[in-house]
Structures are given as C-alpha cells and as structure tokens.
Amino acid sequence: MLNRFALFFQFILICVVVYLKLRANTAYFLTPDSHYYLQAAQNLLNGKGYIITFEGKDTFCAIWPIGYSGLIALVSWGTAFSMEIASKIVNLLALAGCFWLLLRRFQDKAWFVALGLMTSSLVQLYTNTWSETVFLFFVLGFCVHSEKWQRNEVVGTFWAIGAFITRYAGVFLLIPMLIQRRFKALFVYVLFVIGYLLLNYSYTRTFTGGHGFWPEEPLLERFLRGIRGLGEEFLFFAIRDWDLKNTILSHSTKWFIYGIASVQFLIIGVIVWRIGRFLKDKGLVASARWTDGMINALKKQPFFVVAISYLFFTFAIYMTDASLESLYFRRLAPSSLLFSLGILAWVSEQKQLFERTQWLFVAFFVLSMIHALPK
User: Fold this and answer.
1) Which pairs with CB-CB distance under 8 Å and at least 24 residues apart come from 174-178?
2) Distance between CA atoms of 292 and 285, rounded to whole angstroms?
3) Which of 3, 86, 108, 235 is deepest in the core (most CB within 10 A)?
4) pTM of the entire structure?
5) Taking the domains of the chain in order of start, what are their residue ranges?
6) Which residues contact 181 (CB under 8 A, 6 or more apart)?
C-alpha cells in the first residue's frame, strides 16, 4: 500500500511541475513539430484523413507515423478539449502507463525504480507536445514484456508496433529481438513495418516523408559533434536546468541552480563510492567473477540491452541521415531513461547496497525536479 502511495505521489508531483511549466510559458512548449502533430490530429478528427499542409499543399503525413496524432485526436474527441490540451493529457496518460508498468514489474520496489522518471530532461519531454513520452511508454512496455516472451511471443510485438507507429525510431527494436532470438515476433514486426512504409510510399512516393539524405557535414566533424552530444547527455541528463537559457535570469537564481547541480554531483560521488565499497566487500572488483557477473547481468536485464540497442541505432542514423541535426536530449532520452532504470533496478536487488543508498538516490532525483521548476 505504501509503495502504491509513493508511486501516486511521484506521478502527481510530475503533473504539478508540468502544469507550472505550462502556466509559465505555454508557447515555449509548442515547436514546429508540435504544430504539425496538432494539425494532423485536427484533420483526423474532422474526417479529412492523416494529412498536413506542408510547403503550401495538403499531403499525407508520412514524416511522422500516425500514432501520436491519432491519440491526440482520440482524447480530444472523447473529452471535447482542444488539441493542445489533449496532447498534454496524452503525455500524462503515457507517463501514468510507465508507472503502472514499473509497478507490475518491481512491486514493492517500484517506487525506487520509478525515480528514474523524475528528471528535469524527462519533465521537459512530458511538457512538450512531442511524441517522445508515448514512445517511452511503449519501449518500456517492450522491456517489461521481454521477460515474459515465453508466454506469448507474438503478442509481445504489440509494444514494438506501438513504438514504431509513435516514432519511426521504434524500428530499432529489431536489434533486441534478434539478440533475444525472438524470431516469431521479429517476423510479425518486420511485416508490419514494411506494410506501413509501403502505405507511406503509395501516398507520397517516399517511405518516411523525406528522411534519408546523406549529411553534407564532414564525417569526422559530425562524429565528434555526436560524441560531444553523448557526453553532455551522460553528464547532465538529470542535472540540467532549462531556465539557464533565459537571458534575463537573475544572478542569484543562476547561483541557486549551480548550487543544486553541485550538490547533485556530490551525491553521485558518494553513491559511486558506496557502490565501489559494496563491490569490494563482495570481492567482485577487478576479478573474472565480476566480469562474468556483469555480462550475465546485462543479458538478464532488458533495460540495458534495449538502451544499448537504441544508442547504437540512433548514432548510426545520426551519422548517415541529415534529418537528425544533432544528438541532444530529445533524441537520447530513451537510452538515458533505460540506463537509469536499469541501474536503479540493479541497486534495488542488492539489499545491503539498497539500504545504504536509497535516500541518496531520492535526494538526487528530488533535486532534479527542482531543476524542472520554472524560475
């Protein structure tokens, strides 16, 4: 009961922060992509089909799959809210789904693993009218279901299909399917992906609405810029305050933000030190037993397998497709979240380590939520 209350409190806390961010500046969370999502949703609701006005003419929206706009239209139809409000409801419903999935998987430790959903970068995604939050829900569902493939392998493709019709990047799930040798699921998924891309082609003579152009940027320069993006995400995924972009922010507020970030780095240092002590006490540091244990843990934990697959896929696409201008938090959030959940899940399974670090993790993620508050 206490675990469910903690999860509910975490969800409500995120909802409150999202609401405060929207009240502070609604327009900030509507990008050009957002307007196309809303336009497509409105056209679906009006019975015009999945079309947008692009470059002065109405066209089938092959640039983005139908999933996110379809959900917005469905929520708007069911609630009579505007498309913009419906998009925020869709995001929060997807977030609620993520909490539900973690509850199913981790039971009494779900509140601890769910701390990974409470970062400033993710709250930015929840607040924007972007498809990423729904995408995270389906990818997380895929991870949770991966441990139950034996029960019904084909039904498991539901999560992969949901990810793909939300973002084309969902095709990366072919990699963990191959690694896990889930060939029935793989076959069904490939058929669906091919069918959807052929539908796009029948309307637009393109498979994904114009993606797939080779970058003009020098290869080494693009590679180094991508590595820098990965480094920034690794360092600042949960230690990032978007209000620092505000040029009129007072010096006292900036130093407040820097102070919170410093405390977070200190907490991470203590956590790493305690993990090191834990491993040393277990006699696992720098030993073949430790290496074998880590490899087995990676195989056992689908969060890590799927996170690495997504990171590899995204970097490969970034190097070969000019439509991915850069690697930044929006592109990398799925892998960052899954790595965080994987680490928290591992810690939750180590009783002694969990008792030594649980409140340090709580403090770290609460401070991350302070970063997310509008200043």
Assistant:
1) 175/309, 175/312, 175/313, 176/142, 176/146, 176/302, 176/305, 176/306, 176/309
2) 12
3) 86
4) 0.94
5) 2-372
6) none
